[in-house]
Amino acid sequence: MLAMNYRGPGRVRIDHKPMPEIKHPEDAIVRVTRSCICGSDLHLYNGNVPDTRVGSTFGHEFIGVVEEIGPEVHKLKVGDQVLVPFNVACGKCHFCQQGMFGNCHESNPEATAVGGIFGYSHTAGGYDGGQAEFVRVPYANVGPTVIPPGMDPDDAVLLTDVVPTGYQAAEMGGIQPGDTVVVFGAGPVGIMAARCAWLFGAGRVIVFDQYEYRLEFVRNYAPCEAYNFKEIDDPVLFIKKMTDWMGADVCIDAVGAEAAGSALQTITGRKTLLQAGSATAMHWAINSVKKGGIISVVGVYGPTDNLIPIGNFMNKGLTMRGNQTSVKRLLPRLIEHVQNGVLNPRALITHRVPLEDVADAYHIFSEKLDNCIKPVLIPPSANA
Amino acid sequence: MPNLEELAPQFAHIKGWGIDADPKNDPTYPMKQRTNAEHSGYSWDRPTQQVAHEEVLHSNERPGLTAVFGTTVPPTGLSGALRRYAFQYSESSYGHWLPLLLADRVNVVEGIIDDFKQGRVPNIFAEKGWKSEWKHNPQGLATKVLITVAITAGVVALLRGNRSRSLQRA
Ligand SMILES: NC(=O)c1ccc[n+]([C@@H]2O[C@H](COP(=O)([O-])OP(=O)(O)OC[C@H]3O[C@@H](n4cnc5c(N)ncnc54)[C@H](O)[C@@H]3O)[C@@H](O)[C@H]2O)c1
Ligand SMILES: [Zn+2]
Ligand SMILES: [Zn+2]
């Protein structure tokens, strides 16, 4: 079968790989029909996640058709069209039992701090991902969800990560009616977070990014105020001034380790890896939120340390919440929102690329060329 | 969560134990749906254990493998040796993450050697997606090429300079 193959920082290609096999009685094999590239994949692509092995296949946002099931799979049958949450989750451990499906303790031997994630390095369990024609899906009774009849496959594929992550970003903000919410990042995740902030009753939503085309998009889509931080001297001061000198009630970091905007952070975090990614957005979030405010972190950072103003965090009496999204916990509600037309995820998809052109798709998304917001890869066997 | 009354006798000797307990003071809501198993440790009914047919490294912060794991690209070669070394250290240690990052870089070279061994010359330009750069950002590509040429020329000149100097000395 064809699969994306990671060769080193900035280098990926398409190769033939052996078909995945059932390795556990609760496994299923899924034939992929759509698979996205995510901002999270860029941390791998740039070589910033330790234990990203050459020869790995990425891809944690995919939908497809069940081709084969293991003897203990009873919730799915061959031929089912499924959307597969990006978390590998057992459903039985202490954390899954509490609805923390992004923190499963039975899916990632390599690290205890993070649960298993499809196609996300050995630090997240060493699974091959869905940027391929076929993929092994463990715990098939737990994660995979049959796509409701009539749902657009583009909406379905965004329900595997982007929609729940944007939603959880807003949820973790503990937004109270009328709150001013600042979102750093106008990628798919930040855009969705800005959109969802309204669902929790925000009174004002303000987004920051460096790309005009993304700002323009989110301004109409959320809808919200949107500003280019490249044109602002000091984003923190800018936010203070526009919030009656108080700061935002809630700040959301939807950027993570690839942040731009501060030379010091970029050099130490992205160029030399002295810290676990550039923490510019997190730094701005802590300094621009109101005293007693809340920081919600969905941006992904590496496993070591970051430079953030923790002293201000304490002095200002802040609360910080973050997590890998618990996709399964949120799916019932979000499927409803999509079906009722409250959310329109597929509007985010700007690029449809044959899986064979995966290298170009990564480059375009990584460099934000051609006004790219969200690329989706279509394997040649998608219409078989 | 065990309730306050159940626990109270155990802590009867501690004056004031639990008098200010406030179940509403829970910043984890609604991300975490608390069960009564908060303090019961590693005691759940575990899923069937996947059998490891390939080498799978595991964090030393856990007793063994998880019930399910990925089996892609097991550790091999020099990068594999570095990864095995790294896993002697906990996730809290630089001894874990720095060797892993080093292993990742070594692995890139191993990947190129593997390609050659299989009679394949990796098309690094294609892998880097330069076709799309050419299509959507021709100016950027031109700049990159110019910079690369300039740096290469600089390095060559430097090496030459060194060589002629060392020749002079000889
Ligand atoms: N927690 C989770 O479960 C989860 C799930 C999916 C994605 N993520 C993470 O969310 C983040 C965003 O993902 P995405 O797909 O939207 O990525 P993306 O690369 O498309 O978007 C990131 C955006 O942030 C902007 N940006 C850079 N520096 C900034 C700064 N200092 N301030 C404001 N904006 C800045 C970039 O210009 C870009 O538009 C990534 O870190 C990704 O790993 C987390
Ligand atoms: Zn993702
Ligand atoms: Zn679990």
Automatic annotation (TrEMBL), chain A:
Family of the protein in this entry: Belongs to the zinc-containing alcohol dehydrogenase family.
Domain Alcohol dehydrogenase-like N-terminal positions: 25-143
A Pfam family matched in the record: ADH_zinc_N
Keywords: Metal-binding, Oxidoreductase, Zinc
InterPro entries: ADH-like_C, ADH-like_N, ADH_Zn_CS, GroES-like_sf, NAD(P)-bd_dom_sf
Taxonomic lineage: Bacteria, Pseudomonadati, Bacteroidota, Cytophagia, Cytophagales
Alcohol dehydrogenase-like C-terminal domain: residues covered: 188-277
Species annotation: Rudanella paleaurantiibacter
Stated name of the protein: Alcohol dehydrogenase catalytic domain-containing protein
Keyword Oxidoreductase tagged: yes
A single GO molecular function term of this UniProt record: oxidoreductase activity
Required cofactor names: Zn(2+)
From TrEMBL, chain B:
Domain of life: Bacteria
Designated name of the protein: Uncharacterized protein
